[in-house]
Amino acid sequence: MCDVPSLARHLHEKCPGVSRSFLYGLVVRASESLGDWIIICLRLSQQARFFAPSPSNSGPSSAINYHSFSLSASQRMSSPSDAIGTRKIGAPNTLEHRVYLEKNGNVISAFHDLPLFANEQHTVFNMIVEVPRWTNAKMEISKSEPFNPILQDVKKNKLRFVRNCFPHHGYIWNYGAFPQTWENPTHTHPETKAKGDNDPLDVCEIGEAVGYVGQVKQVKILGVMALLDEGETDWKVIVVDVNDPLAPKLNDIEDVERHLPGLIRATNEWFRIYKIPDGKPENQFAFSGEAKHKNYAIDVVMECHEAWKGLIKDGYSGISLANVSVEGSSHRVSHADVPPDSRKDPAPIDPSISKWFFISGHSV
């Protein structure tokens, strides 16, 4: 069987001007049909010629460097996310509240219909904001409900809120997920030695703008951490909105520490201690808490994208596969039967949610 991640890495070393995710997709295709190797060779030669540095020394190269990729104002492209809106049901902070994604007024699945890539050639991804920065409500994409709306997590019939562990307040980034990804709970990762957590990949967006629930951001990947949450691998991908003012300077994980000093350390601490106020032990990390670099993170995302393809094909207990656009899916329907928008003002929450918790032995 073809070792897709290893072969993609090898090709990327030989053709550094070609997008890593583009190579990954080609290798996946080739692993399914040996005849497609001819197509791969042709496409690689075309890509390599197009992105090769100019031989002229008279001025800066016009080629795109994918190791330090950023979008200029003219390159901030239109994408499927431009037409994405939200359909809200009920009041926030209630059990009935749901946030569906819409495309051109029609409900789509946040898990399955929204494409992972905003621009595959440029390695720009779509991210769905579940929890805006500084908020406490633990919102997440529902795996079980048709068309996978965003709702507030519930435990013992009570809405879940994350506690404020001093000096943090709520989530310290725009927190969300990559569509069309899945952390396979039947697969043990060879380096973390733990199985996936059965969720879409988690994403921490570190740009300056506070998002909103259901927002689709175009982001570039900077790195990844491997949280071991109650014995499961729970990747946390670090990204930045391509439209953020700092995005041109953030191209890999070391740039985050250079331009946003302390944020990686604070992120590590936040995930380690955030469950302690609820009586749970400190979380652990693989790799001694190290944030892995961009290329490693892209490999993780692509592996989870391939796992999602397997999910769509074979299914998994408790996960709704209803969608309106996935070609070849037996769960594809012509339209989503979802009630009309009935948004309401947020319900009041318990004032204790604003309390600060001081965790002994931990500081940023």
TrEMBL record:
Its EC number is 3.6.1.1. Transmembrane segments: none annotated. GO terms for molecular function: inorganic diphosphate phosphatase activity; magnesium ion binding. Keywords: Cytoplasm, Hydrolase, Magnesium, Metal-binding. Its main location: cytoplasm. Its cofactor is Mg(2+). InterPro entries: Pyrophosphatase, Pyrophosphatase_sf. It is found in: Cytoplasm. One of its GO terms (biological process) is phosphate-containing compound metabolic process. GO terms for cellular component: cytoplasm. It catalyses: diphosphate + H2O = 2 phosphate + H(+). Belongs to the PPase family. PANTHER family: INORGANIC PYROPHOSPHATASE (PTHR10286). This is Inorganic pyrophosphatase. It comes from Austropuccinia psidii MF-1.
